[in-house]
Amino acid sequence: QVQLVESGGGLVQPGGSLRLSCTTSGFILGFYDMTWYRQAPGKERELVAQIPAAVGSTHYVDSVKGRFTMSRDNGRNTVYLQMNSLKPEDAATYYCNARATIFGRLNDYWGQGTQVTVSS
Questions:
Q1: What are 78-120's pLDDT values in tens digits?
Q2: What pLDDT does residue 54 have?
Q3: In this structure, are residues 78 and 22 in contact, taking their beta carbons and an 8 Å threshold?
Q4: How far is the CA of 48 from the CAs of 30, 53, 67, 109, 111, in angstroms?
């Protein structure tokens, strides 16, 4: 059974840090492009950071460049999003996504999300 479970969200003051984790099971993480998305109330879901399965650069949305770092540990079946210098506009529900085409079939998996609140 495929599962993606996000954790690490919570309430943090502006300027603070959080580390989100996405623990996966039921598929081989190393074959999948992994992406963190976020969605704030009343707004569309936004791609935050993406790390490819193969060797390649991690992509970040401009608004988080220099503040957020995405990483993956295929051996631990986990991806991370280190978020520093958090701003109120970073507040959202953060979702983990796994995507790969294997034997011609698109596999696209989502977690349930973890809430990040940035407020003083």
A1: 999 999 999 999 999 999 999 999 999 999 999 999 999 999 9
A2: 81
A3: yes
A4: 20, 17, 11, 17, 15
Pairing of strands 92-102, 33-39: antiparallel
Q: Give 74's strand partners.
A: none
Q: How far apart are the first and last CA of the chain?
A: 40
Q: Quick: pLDDT tens for 29-86.
A: 999 999 999 999 999 999 999 999 987 789 999 999 999 999 999 999 999 999 999 9
- The CA–CA distances, whole Å, from 69 to 34, 47, 61 equal 13, 14, 11
Residues 6+ away with beta carbon under 8 Å from 22: 4, 5, 6, 34, 36, 78, 79, 80, 81, 96, 111
State which amino acid sits at residue 7. Answer: S
Provide the 10 A C-beta neighbour count for residue 106. 8
Query: What is the distance between the alpha carbons of residues 10 and 22, in angstroms, rounded to a whole number?
Result: 15
